[in-house]
Amino acid sequence: MRERDDGTNVLLDANENAYGPGLDLQSDGSLKTAMSNGSRAGGDTIDLRGLNRYPDPHQAVLKQKLCELRNLHIHTAQDLKPDNLFVGVGSDEAIDALLRCFCTPAHDKILTCPPTYGMYAVSAQINDIAVVKVPLDVNNTFQLQPEAINATLSADPTIKMVYICSPGNPSGTLISKADIQQVLEHPTWNGIVILDEAYIDFAPDGSSLAEWVTEWPNLVVMQTLSKAFGLAGIRLGAAFASPQVAGLLNNLKAPYNISSPSSALAIAALKSENLAVMRSNQEKILEQRQRMLNELPKIPRIGRFIGGTNSNFLLVEILDKTRDEGGRPSNESAMALYETLAETRGVVVRFRGKELGCEGCIRITVGTSEEVDRLLMEIRSVLQGDGIADHRGINGIEKSQDQKEQDANGVVA
Question: Cβ atoms within 10 A of the Cβ of 32, count?
Answer without folding.
Answer: 13
